Amino acid sequence: MLEISNLYKSFNTGTINEVNALQDVSLSVGDGSFVCVLGTNGSGKSTLLNAIAGTFISDAGTIILNGRNITRLPEHKRACQIGRVFQNPFSGTAPGMSISENLALAAKRGKKRGLGWGLPVSVVRDLKSRVKALNMGLEERMNTQIGKLSGGQRQALTLLMASWLKPDLLLLDEHTAALDPTTAGKVIEMTKQIVTDYKLTTLMVTHSMQQAVNLGNRIIMMHQGKIKYDFSGEEKNKMKVPDLLSLFDELRRKDQIDAGEALLLSAKHV
Amino acid sequence: MTLLIGSITIGLILALLALGIFISFRIFNFPDITAEGSFTFGAAITASLIVAGANPAVATLLAFAGGLLAGSTTGLIHTRFKINPLLSGILVMTALYSVNLYVMGKSNVPLLSRNTLFTWFEKFSNIISGKDATVNLIGWSVPARDLWTLIFCLLITVAFSLLLLWFFRTNIGTAMRATGDNDQMIRALGVNTKGMIISGVALSNGFIALAGSMLAQFQGFADVQMGIGMLVWGLASVIIGEALISDNKLGLVIAGAVIGAVLFRLLVAIALRWGMNPNNLKLITAAFVFLALVLPGFMKQTKKIKLPG
Fold it and tell me: Does B248 contact A at CB distance below 8 Å?
């Protein structure tokens, strides 16, 4: 259960480039929910994910995950509850290390790392069987450096790594945006399977309306640092791509009107 | 032959330096110039303690501890105060110059006729092979003492290399390597990357100070200037090792750094023997490292240009 209340975050505060990336965001996500987060560029959806993951500390508000207040915790202390996949396929794996080593690192997410052997034989066997389940033939290349794999392979492994210990919350930040359509499709299939199999609570940021329609049981749409729409249940199931597109257009139109009005006002009164 | 054995011995001592540079430069991509200060720091600590009558083994281990301290200071300045790695190293290196003078009390501390690790090796040789014994080594007559010294240095270096290899294969060591490889990823997996950088740079400087300590005992003095150029020296060793091994298996890379250090020392000894002015040594070392850093990229470029035609 994720409870976000009245979250605020601004960047470059006090300068001309001030961005209010999150403005009074409140969101409650029940266990096992799969939420797709949509929004225009700069709407704050990635900021929201980063705020939850702890990439930065929020200005105000609270984040409670499974009863633990993580608002002020540094990123590495939240990691025991959160699994992440990044937009950039290169971000989620250590390129100079082997597939086994990367997976073994993930198998200890948020746990104490001591002087025990990093790759015991029993663990390697377990890693191999799980990699085999990906059906990518990578189980024969466990000692290959991850940097030598394609973006899609790396992203699939990152997904496997993030979900390894069944996190309380899985954060997917446009994790297929940098992949070609076929690979993206495969990774999405895999996402779907892992999330359903493990019953993971998931927040997925995406730019693809199709993904948002096909996946998950809830859609939230962000705009200018705020959550503008929130659909779940029957309402979410009825959503089609054109519906979402028209909502986007509506948001954009409102923007333009606002800007126009502001101009008019300033012309009249200043 | 005596010269050759002496060079290999120094090469093995400086292999510890190369391992230290390997940790900071290759694992963390952290060009850590603290090395120049911590190398002397290790020598200074050991020399002062030995002069004060301490056990040489204790004096050597305390040099290692001193290196850890110097390295963690650099790591702390870099991570806690967000100062650029190079600048953090420069700050600590500069500060260490004064600290070293303070520790030694003067700019040069001789260790002649003092009990060092190397007088122990000599004693051992006297007991095993007899006093002033010589050994016939492929036609050359070599003092048994020099040979035993070489063997002991080899054992020490191999022991520390294996220790490092083991450490980097443990859970914490693997996390440390991942920190240098992709810090974003490993933070998301719950590792305190700042702590990893601090302990990694500390470990690196521990090895470097150990090399300084051993070298001071071998050559019979500690000098406040002896650390100058050591970073580039270590880099040269690491780069030669990489060129020889051209594999990224951890064990081989570590072995490469050790072999590189010995080989580089031999090359220098040969060049000096051929009459190279010692004053040119640092210039040539720097030029060598420059070329080694630039050439691989340059060769790739020329290949790329040729491909379409």
Answer: yes
The answer to whether the Cβ–Cβ distance between B187 and A76 falls below 8 Å is yes
- Whether residue A268 is predicted with pLDDT greater than 70 in this model: the reply is no
Tokens of A233: 């249940």
Instruction: State pLDDT tens for residues B39-84.
Output: 999 999 999 999 999 999 999 999 999 999 999 999 999 999 999 9
Chain A hits for B184, CB-CB cut-off 8 Å, are: 86, 91
Q: Count of CB contacts below 8 A, A vs B?
A: 88
Contact assessment for residue A47 and residue A100, using Cβ atoms and an 8 Å cutoff = no
Per-residue model confidence as pLDDT tens digits over A49-105:
999 999 999 999 999 999 999 999 999 999 999 999 999 999 999 999 999 999 999
Q: What is the pLDDT of residue B89?
A: 96
Q: Is B250 on the interface with A (CB under 8 A)?
A: no
Q: Which residues of B touch A85 (CB under 8 A)?
A: none
Nearest Cα neighbor of B121 from B214, B258, B40 is B214
- The answer to whether residues A78 and B188 touch, using CB atoms and an 8 Å cutoff, is no
Q: Given an 8 Å threshold on Cβ–Cβ distance, is A119 in contact with B191?
A: no
Report the C-alpha gap between A5 and A205 in whole angstroms. 19
CA distance B243 to B256: 8
Is the pLDDT score of A187 beyond 80?
yes
Is residue B192 pLDDT above 60, yes or no?
Answer: yes
Q: Residue A125 in contact with residue A70, Cβ under 8 Å? A: no
Q: How many Å apart are CA B174 and CA B160, to the nearest integer? A: 18
- Taking alpha carbons only, the member of A27, A26, A8, A10 closest to residue A18 is A10
Q: Are A167 and A156 in contact (CB under 8 A)?
A: no
CA dist A12 and A16 (Å) reads: 8
pLDDT at res. B304: 64
Q: At residue B297, does pLDDT exceed 80?
A: no
Residue B297: exposure state from Cβ atoms within 10 A (0-12, 13-18, ≥19)? exposed
**In contact, B245 and B1? CB cutoff 8 Å:** no
pLDDT score of A260: 65
Query: Which residue is closest to A145 within chain B, CA to CA?
Result: B248
Whether residue B210 is predicted with pLDDT greater than 50 in this model: the reply is yes
Fold of A2-110+118-239: Rossmann fold (3.40.50)
Contact A94 B185 (CB under 8 A): yes
Give me the domains of chain B, ranges plus CATH numbers.
2-280 (1.10.3470)
Q: Which of B177, B187, B189 is nearest residue A106 as measured by Cβ atoms?
A: B189
Q: Which of A86, A94, A119 sits opposite B178 (nearest CB)?
A: A94
Please report which helix (H) or strand (E) contains residue A265, including its range.
helix A241-269
Residue B120 to residue B118: CA distance in whole angstroms = 5
Sign, CA dihedral B154-B159-B165-B168, equals negative
Of A91, A96, A105, Cβ closest to residue B189: A105
Residue B200 has a pLDDT of: 97
**Cα-flanking dihedrals φ and ψ of residue A83, to 5°?**
-110, 140
Which residues are within 8 A (CB) of A177 and not within 5 positions of it... i.e. 6 or more apart?
A87, A184, A206, A207
Distance from CA of A118 to the nearest CA of B (A): 4
